[in-house]
Amino acid sequence: MTAAVEAEVVNRAPTLEVVDLKTHFFTKAGVVRAVDGVSLRVAPGEVLGLVGESGCGKSVTGCSILGLIDPPGRIVSGRIAFAGLDLVRLPEDELRSLRGRRIAMIFQDPMMTLNPVLRVDTQMVEAILAHRRMPHGEAWALARDALAQVGIPSPERRLKSYPHELSGGMRQRVAIATAFINKPDLVIADEPTTALDVTIQAQILHEAQELCRRTGTAMIWISHDLAVVSSLADRIAVMYAGVIVEEGRASDVIGAPLHPYTRGLLGSVPSANARGTRLAQIPGMTPSLINLAPGCRFRARCPRADAECTSEPAISEPLAHRQVRCWRPHLEGAMP
Amino acid sequence: MSVVGTHGEAEIERPPTGTAAAPETPLRRLMADYFESRFATAAFVLLVTIIALALLAPLIVPQNPYNLAEVDVLDSRLPPGTKGMAGYTYWLGTDGAGRDLVSAMLYGLRISLAVGVVSCLIATVIGAAVGLIAAYVGGRTESLLMRLVDLQLSFPAILIALILIAILGKGVDKIIIALVTVQWAYYARTVRGTALAEMSKDYVEAARCLGLSHARILFRQILPNVLPLLIVVATVQAAHAIALEATLSFLGVGLPRTEPSLGLLISNGFEYMLSGKYWISFFPGVVLLATIMAINLVGDQLRDVLNPRLKR
Amino acid sequence: MTAAARAPIIEARGLTKRFLKAPDLAERASAWLGGKAGGEVVRAVDGVSLTIGKGEVVGLAGESGCGKSTLGRMIAGLLEPSEGVLLYKGQDRATLTGSQAKAARLAVQMIFQDPYSSLNPRLRVEAAVGEAPLVHGLVSRADVARYVADILKRVGLDPELRRRFPHQFSGGQRSRIGIARALAVKPEFLVCDEAIAALDVSIQAQIINLFLDLREAYDLTYLFISHDLGVVQHICDRILIMYLGRIVEAAPTRALFESPNHPYTRALLAEVPRISLTKRTFHPIKGEIPSPLDPPPGCHFHPRCQHAMPRCRTEAPALRTIAPGRTSACHLNDA
């Protein structure tokens, strides 16, 4: 994006703004603080990449936004501002009317979206008619067009099939088409291509890009794959142990990462290391979210940790449009 | 960007501190999970009480109902609470032959439990062996064994038991044979299914890759993972066995009259039901019901606990 | 000494694996009546020949349905080939018996993908790692505890943990336990079947480093099966690309990535997501990966290939040498 366009994007009211969200799971082993103070915002038409490894809380964040957290988990505090409403305080029936119409979700396993005993057209038409009144035939035509838009050949035939008759890539495309069919303001995609082959993944990324461009939908793309996110997202937020540790423009976060964890992650990817040499690895493992030690969550594995890291770092904004949660971010080499 | 340490001590990992507190062996984990639910604990306590009563029967009952010297036929059909000729109270009354119902019931419970448990154990061993072999060997052997199982399961249990007893005659051992014949197929089918599921897992492949013998893989790798489900099935089947034995005894083809089980006691008292002497059938019936229910409850809770998909 | 100069440790000639779904009663009846004969044949691996020299790290890459896992399992001795010959140190494995067969079996070990299902949940770590060497007499009962502790240290695990059960470890640690178990029988050759795919990125780096270290320490040879071309590029000397049961291209790593020859390889490399500083638009190849039940005739890739000629539809291209150490199966090379 050019600086002018970007300034405009930033100044427009965000489609979604999450403020200090905390989602905890109250299990018999203790309280799992899966999301422990996450704030983010997504502008209209923007793609935000939410990146992190397993257990960092990125999926829980996505599900919290849609109110899909089941007991023993619940949203403990925070505000989710969307379309002038606070989703945290919204009653269930109002949330339900928003889901599928103004916010949609795509899951890693398309069989979580698709009902195996219903035909594809039944499900898609149902998704349309749940939120809009129109004759059945018109809804069917809409479904067919949506499938064509995501690159499914002979959509009329596919509409008549059952999910198990389609390949994994096809199913995910149907799930994506269903998510976009009511032209939502925001789509949350939770690792949608992780289980797919490289060539199919490329196709799905292509379709998703096209759809966002065409409909102006904002998207949160949750993934552990930095490479995918770097090619797709406008902005990237990196999560670790329940909090966002770094956020900024994709090119900035990838090209000049501030947080030691982001650096470590980028540095441990094979392509960042000379061929055949030992990879620069991050030692240790992610901490348990039940007995979190006080202070910075990354302290135990951080090569730059020192005495001040025993207290939890606040979010700072050392450079324009870039936030980081670290006492000693890598400021050298970063462009102001 | 620093590279932490050379290969060696710097990289030795320790698991997060939280896990040290978690119960270690799978058995302890199972027990911890099971006793979490108060309902499950109550069911378990009930079952243990019943078993304890049965085991301690000779020590706690006033009378040995099989010892004809202690039984006074003049005390027959006395209602609950009556004092008998020998000086102690018949808390639950007496039956047609003058036996104290409490004593008869507890002794009957012993027999019922013993027959049920023994037949269940033998059926478990046979059925599990068949199931494991069928799953591991596969091919024609598996087809043959499973068709046998299907055949066995398509007949009503009572019918087979009756036919067998008619052929073999009466006696405790014949009853046990009949019960085993009726039960083994169910174990075989369950074990085969679970064993097949386990065999598709990578650790079995790994064992083959490591050159471990078939017997070792079957008994050291697969069987321990089949055991939990087997225990659940055995628990529930024990209840079935007890119920089946009671039915056979009720019909008069079960255990001999000299060692009456609960079923026979119920059957004995049946003729008196209409004349108002309900207690002779009623109390043994309640005890039978309680026993079967307790076993079923515990088995049910075990199954829930072992089911990894249930969110708890 | 280059890898090629060392004697081949594994050689496969014309390996084929067919999975047969026999026709059921209804299908057989219909065939007898003159209808279509039922039963389905999946040629998971179709006439694959390869050579792996001692000390090499060979990568086997491809997408789902390409047969790489099946090929890996055949090489590890877990699946019997339907056709073809598998040689270990020059000897046909199928003809070996007794102690020679056992030695061949132990020399080739496999590291599995899923760290959760690849460990027996009811065996403690020391039992899982120590059972096989004890059974095969590689170590005496008196020494086994020390032996296991040693191996655990080598793979980066604290030996104090050896009496724990798998569920008490994280995914990365379980991977290490699986590796320890394989190392315990002193193998020479490791087949790594997507061994790191199920792990987090930062743990993947640790395990990749472990593989590199072990290769040095134990003089191991690897067949590294993965769909992740980034990883394969990093640690492999040579790469084989498979598509629907056949090898379509084989080349040293650098050559493959600098100048891929086969159209499928080219498309694959172009579509691998790479860390980039700018947003990219994707131009993927059209079409689905065909089902192995019904592969396209001739060259399997022709429906999705931009350069398909009429010949590609009818004639399957043979794997031909196009440069020293490089082979490719494409009719375009004949021109």
**Separate helix tally of chain A:** 11
**Mean pLDDT across all amino acids of chain C:** 87
The third-level CATH topology of chain C is Rossmann fold
Question: How do the helices and strands follow one another from N- to C-terminus of chain A?
Answer: HEEEHEEHEHHHHEHEHEEHHEE
Cα shape of chain A: globular
CATH architecture of chain C: 3-Layer(aba) Sandwich
- Classified by CATH, the class of chain C is Alpha Beta
H-E order of chain C: EHEEHEEHEHHHEHEHEEHHHEE
The percentage helix of chain C is 25-40%
* Greatest chain-chain contact: A-C, 48 and 46 residues
**Terminal Cα span of chain C:** 35 Å
Cα gyration radius of chain A (Å):
21 Å
Describe this protein with a few key phrases.
heterotrimer; A: 336 residues; alpha/beta; eight-stranded mixed sheet; four-stranded antiparallel sheet; 11 helices; 32% helix; globular; B: 312 residues; mainly alpha; MetI-like fold; two-stranded antiparallel sheet; elongated
How would you describe this protein?
The complex is a heterotrimer of chains A (336), B (312) and C (335). Chain A is an alpha/beta fold and 336 residues long. Chain A has helices at residues 3-11, 58-65, 92-98, 120-129, 136-149, 155-159, 168-180, 198-215, 226-232, 250-255, 260-268, and strands at 16-27, 30-42, 47-51, 73-82, 85-86, 103-106, 186-190, 218-223, 235-240, 243-249, 316-319, 322-324. Chain A is built from 11 helices and 12 strands. The model of chain A has no long low-confidence stretch (mean pLDDT 86). In chain A, helix 4 crosses helix 5 (136-149) and helix 7 packs parallel to helix 8 (198-215). In chain A, the strands form 2 sheets. An 8-stranded mixed β-sheet of chain A has the order 6-7-8-3-9-10-12-11, sandwiched between helices. A 4-stranded antiparallel β-sheet of chain A has the order 2-1-4-5, with helices on one face. In chain A, 49% of the residues are buried. Chain B has 312 residues and is mainly α. Chain B has one domain: MetI-like fold (Orthogonal Bundle). Chain B has helices at residues 18-21, 26-34, 38-60, 101-137, 139-154, 157-168, 172-199, 202-209, 214-250, 262-270, 279-306; strands at residues 82-83, 89-90. With 335 residues, chain C is an alpha/beta fold. Chain C is built from 11 helices and 12 strands. Chain C has helices at 25-32, 68-75, 98-107, 125-135, 144-154, 171-183, 201-218, 229-235, 253-258, 263-271, 310-314; strands at 8-21, 40-53, 57-61, 83-88, 91-92, 108-111, 189-193, 221-226, 238-243, 246-252, 320-323, 326-328. In chain C, helix 4 (125-135) packs parallel to helix 6 and helix 5 (144-154) packs across helix 6. The longest helix of chain C has 18 residues, at 201-218. Classes of the chains: A alpha/beta (336), B mainly alpha (312), C alpha/beta (335). At the A-C interface, helix 8, helix 9, helix 10 and helix 11 of A face helix 6, helix 7, helix 8 and helix 10 of C.
